Amino acid sequence: MIGLDDVYKVVVAMAPLYVALILGYGSVRWWHIFTPDQCIAINRFVSYFTLPLFTFEFTAHADPFKMNYLFIGADAISKFIIVLVLALWAQCSSKGSYCWSITSFSLSTLTNSLLVGVPLIKAMYGPDGVDLVVQASVIQAIIWLTILLFVLELRRTGSDVSLSSTTTTTNSQVVSMEPTKDLEENQSVEVVTTSKPSFLTLMKIVWIKLALNPNSYASIIGITWAFLSNRWHFQMPSIMEGSILIMSRAGTGTAMFSMGIFMAQQEKFIACGTSLAVFGMVLRFIAGPAAMAIGCIAVGLHGDILRVAIIQAALPQSITSFIYAKEYGLHADVLSTAVIFGMLVSLPVLIGYYAALGFF
């Protein structure tokens, strides 16, 4: 049974995050330390340096040979359920869209497992529960955050290419009005400028951009190291470990600092509005756990493993999802609200889940 000491441990783990958030907020709103361009640079620093090293550090220390693959399978099924529902919504509803499907996937599936989940699950279910939460974090970093990064890059690259094509076409139309050009030349220029790149060309551009993004391969390199080190039982050299830790330890703190900066640049504290904030909370604390429950039933999980799976699916929003949303310009206001208020309301919600699941 979870007690006051256990709740205190969770609060202790969460409080420093809000300190970093407030410092970031105050540095822009109260003290005017950073300019808008500097704020963009800070988010890019977090996105390209501290978060990739943080991801590499915790995936490199996982043990892939001791993972519960039924648990991972249930998690995968829950994600596919969410993707299917969002795809149907985007196709069949007038309010559905590709962009909102991406954001809704983040809201309903991507969790802050390490900072909030580990101390809370340890108090509820002990070390075995913590192992499952860490496994979920590793799989999230390797698969689901990588997929999110891919679709965000695909969306931005597609938009950039379309904008470039439109701009070139407009310039051609201006040229075609010049009296020194004959009609045949005008027509040939118009046909060249209005053609769109093929799907293969678009994918090539996307893969090149992802290859230059350290977030794409930080988790892959980390889990590769984990396989090799656990297979042949060797440890990371201390000089290498120290070099990684000095940056990776700043990952979550700088991410929250960047979120505080973002909030300070918005007109309202709840930047996305109340209705979208409630929508995000419903996806985070109801839709995600419900999909996970279906996945667990599908693979036959039961007992504490089933309970841990559902509770870890109801953990607060992933901070990394906000950093990606800010970097790629997609509903960062919604994700920042989900992270901040999700962590505030998560403790009573998760204790409620814990109490309710105790009856099954």
UniProtKB/TrEMBL annotation:
Membrane topology: Multi-pass membrane protein
Ranges that cross the membrane: 7-28, 69-90, 102-121, 133-152, 206-228, 243-264, 276-300, 337-356
Keyword vocabulary terms for this entry: Auxin signaling pathway, Membrane, Transmembrane, Transmembrane helix, Transport
GO CC annotation, single: endoplasmic reticulum
Superkingdom of this protein's organism: Eukaryota
Record keyword Transmembrane helix present: yes
GO biological process: auxin polar transport; auxin-activated signaling pathway
Main localization (coarse): membrane
Regions annotated as coiled coil: none
GO MF entry, a single one: auxin efflux transmembrane transporter activity
Subcellular location: Membrane
Family indicated by similarity: Belongs to the auxin efflux carrier (TC 2.A.69.1) family.
Function of the protein: May act as a component of the auxin efflux carrier.
Protein name: Auxin efflux carrier component
